[in-house]
Predict the structure.
Amino acid sequence: MNNENPAPEDAPIDEVAPAEAVPTADATPESPASTATEPPAGQASESEDDGPSFADLISDERLLKAVRDVGYEKPSPIQAATIPALLEGRDVVGLAQTGTGKTAAFALPLLQRLDPKQKTPQALILEPTRELALQVCEALEKYSARLPGIHVLPVYGGQGYGVQLSALRRGVHVVVGTPGRIMDHLERGTLDLTGLRMLVLDEADEMLNMGFAEDVETILADTPAEKQAALFSATMPRQIRRLAESYLTDPVEVNVKGKTATAPNVRHRYLIVSYPQKVDALTRILEVENFEGMIVFVRTKTETETLAEKLRARGFSAAAINGDVNQAQRERTIGQLKSAKLDILVATDVAARGLDVDRISHVVNYDIPTDTESYVHRIGRTGRAGRSGEAISFVTPRERHLLRSIEKATRQTLEQMPLPTVEDVNATRLNRFDDAITAALADDRLGFFRDVVEHYVNEFNVPELDVAGALATVLQGDAPMLLEPDPEPRSRDRFKDSDRARGESGREPRNRRTGGPMATYRIAVGRRHKVQPRQIVGALANEGGLAREDFGHIDIRGDFSLVELPASLPQQVWDALRSTRISGKLIELRPDKGGRFDSDRGGRFDKGGRFDGPKGYGKKDRKFKKKF
C-alpha cells in the first residue's frame, strides 16, 4: 500500500496532541491544557516544564518534516517520555487515556527503526477494532509520507483475504490488525512473523474486555523472543499487569493523566445510533431541540459538504467550513452565523479552531472524536459568556468504549438520550405553529389581512375557520405538516403469535440494550471447528458493530451454532457479517427457520410448538450453552 499524505483534518485525531492542547512553560493555571501527574518512583516522568521538542526526540529529518507537515509542534507528555525509551530499544508500558497522543508515541520511533530493504513484517500493532486499526494505519502513512518505500497493511475481518494476501506477498513493513484476523493468518501460514522486531499492543484493556485475551496471548507466544514490545492501556487491571510481566522485559513504565475539563454549564448527552441512521437522527434532534446556533462536527472535509447539503434539502439553514474553504468565505460564513442569518455550521476540527460565536447553544458530535482533547475543544465552542450549552454526541455501537474515556477526562457524566419519536417531532411542529399564529396576531398588518379575509367570507359565503385552514394549507405548501408514524418492524409478526409458537416455557427473549425482540440465527461453525462463545461474541460484535447486550443465548452444536441476536438486524450489519470468518471458516449467518431456544433445555421449537432438541442431546452439549 503506497503512502500518501492526507490533509491533517482527515486523519485520526488520536495521534499527536495539537500544539494548542499541549501546555508550555507560559501556561497559566486556568489554561485548558493537559498537565501530568507525578509518577511513582521508577517510572518515567511526564512533567513537561519547558519540555523537549520533536527535534530533541527524533533524529530522522524526514520524520520531523512529516510531523511539521501536519502542523504539530510540541510533543505531548506521553510522547516525550515514550519516544526516547523506544528509540533506546527498551520495552514500554504506557498507562494513558485515548487522546494523549500515544499513537505517535509508538509510531514515530517504530518508523525511524524500520529497515526498508526487509520485506517481511518488522512491526505488528494489535488493535481491538478495525476502526482503530484503520486509524493507526492512516497515522502511520501520514508520518511516513517522506519515507520512500514503506508499506503499511491493515489486517481485519470483514475485508476479503485476497487483498491482504496480495499485499503480504508483495512485502509489507508494518502490519496493523485485529486479533481474530491475525490469528487466522497465523493458522493459515500466510503471515510470517519470524522477522518481527517490534510488537505494540494498543488499547490492551479494551481488547481483553472484548474477549480477545486468549487470542492475544497466542499471538504473543508466536512472536520472536528477541523483539521490542510496547503495551498501552487506559487502565492496569491484574490481567494486563500479568501480560506485561510475562511478555515484556524490564519495561519503562509511563503514567500519563490528562487534566481536562469542560464548562460546568454545559449539559452532555449521547445517542446510540448506527451510521446510516445519523442523518435522520440529526434531523429529528434539530426539530425538537430549541437551539439558537449549532456546530455539527464531522471527521472529513467531504462529509462537511455532504451533510450541509442534506440539511439544506430538509429545510434547515446550514453551511460547511473545512480546510478547503478560503479565508474570505470562512469569514463570511461565520459572520452569517453571528448575525443569525445562518443557524447550523457543519465543520471539521481544524476549520473550527478559534471559532468564537456566543449564540452557539448546541454542539453536535456527528462523528464522535477518538481523543478527549478534541472533545473538550469542540464542546468549548458552546456555553460561553455565562450561557448554558448543550453537547450531543452520536455514538455507534462499536464506539461505546469512547464514552468512558470522555467521562474520565472531562469529569462529566454523559447522559444517554433517546431518539426523538415521531410524536415528539409532531408535538414540536404544532407548538411552533401555535407560536407563529400568536406572533402574527401582534403584527401591525393584521388589520389589513383581516379585511381581506372578511371580504372573501362575504363574497364566497365560506366559514372563517375554513378560510383559516386554507391559508395554512397555502403556507405549508406540499411539505407534510406532521410526520407519518414509524413503520412496525418487519420481524414483529413473528412474536405476535400465541404461546404455542413459543413452547410451554413462553419465554420471549428481549434485547437487554433496546428492549426489542430477539431472534435465533444460525452460523456455520460449531464444536468441530473448536469455537467457543467468546470467539462468536468477539467476531460478531467486532465485525457487525453489535454491543455485548445484543447477544442472548449461544448454543454450540456439532458443526453449527445458534445465536440469539436482535430480530431486526440492519442491512449494514448483514453486509459486514457476510464475509466474517471464525477459525478461518465463513460463518454464513442466516435466520434459523426452525424457531428459537428453549430456556431450560437448549434446542428449539418447531413451527408447531413441538420441541426439537438435537440428536443425542445431553450433558456434553449443554455445557456449551452460555448466556451473556
Remarks:
- The first helix runs from residue 54 to 57.
- The two ends are 39 Å apart (CA to CA).
- Residues 238 and 462 are 81 Å apart (CA to CA).
